[in-house]
């Protein structure tokens, strides 16, 4: 038997969760959100993402080497593992979703160990990474055979995907509409209030909280473990036909270098940084210049031979706040003021690459909760 559900949030998390719930056609779902696909706002992380699939979550400590791939370790790692097949299916079969496969290289510099970005990259640069049997074509780069950029000590290469968020978010919203989801603009000041926002006018039996960084202040949630990690990007028209990242830079421990070429004319995203607890919404012009210079150093093919940043054709500068959470993503059941709530927020810099895994886990919690509520009736 179906239930009335309200999903608060229309970022990649809310849309993916609503879609998985709606696909079964049992439930009647309303999405309520302050920001929607098409908006660019500092409170809305999803449009700013590259977005690609570069797993960063380590397997749980103590897991036997032989078990690393066979058994998921931390839930975070399994969220990443469970997301790859769907992203690969979209890249393979559904060009309208705006996801494509990309050759990817990850460069490791020994000196980045212990920095904010180096720590973020720790599993990603592991030559024995758990995801080596998940993504296609994984191989270890060799100093002798591969032309490694100066200062790079090693690295890996594989096939990943890059998502054009300007196409993918509207596509997710369209898929939700196709499956009967009703989408409304609205601002919720307390999560329990959302139970009264179902499009039927009846009370929703369950609310799914996908409000990202706003879970810090949202009434009834106010999760103090949430904090931002600011990311600044430059989107350009130049097309290097590759995705590349390094484990750090010489410009500070929280600056990063990555290049992501988005699908279907989405431009090429040059990044970046990982500035914890920094809420600044405006691009820093000096950082933008460093980002562009480093991108060309990393991938000289971005511009004609001998040219510098003046040869980059800029579409836009951007800033997004990754919704980080001490203790990791929160995919959990809760009861707030008598309202059944399933949380799915705090996805840091990995909301796309964990999206289907987290949405499936949230859906399971929704089904369990509704099953228990019905059993009590
Ligand atoms: P959001 O996208 O922030 O959406 C939150 C939603 O909740 C919005 O619709 C908002 O309006 C709504 N909302 C909030 N409060 C309320 C309220 N009170 N009432 C009603 N609605 C409300 N991830 C990857 O996987 N790969 C990448 O390559 C990648 N690159 C990134 C690069 C940058 C520069 C940044 C900033 C992030 C990157 N990320 C990447 C991370 C990814 O963007 C986030 O993890 C993801 O977008 C979080 O999505 P979300 O739906 O949880 O939150």
Give an overview in words.
The longest helix has 22 residues, at 355-376. The chain starts with a strand and ends with a helix. Strand 9 (243-246) and strand 10 form a beta hairpin. It has a domain at 4-46 and 166-224 and 327-376: NAD(P)-binding Rossmann-like Domain (Rossmann fold). The model is unreliable at 61-72 (pLDDT under 50). With 377 residues, the protein is of the alpha/beta class. The protein has helices at 12-23, 67-70, 75-93, 116-120, 165-178, 285-298, 355-376, and strands at 4-8, 28-33, 99-108, 139-141, 154-163, 182-185, 206-209, 226-236, 243-246, 255-261, 268-273, 275-276, 314-325, 330-336, 339-345. The strands form 2 sheets. Strands 3, 4, 5, 8, 9, 10, 11, 12 and 13 form a 9-stranded mixed sheet that branches. The relative contact order is 0.20. It has 7 helices and 15 strands. Flavin-adenine dinucleotide binds next to helix 1, strand 2, strand 8, strand 11 and strand 13.
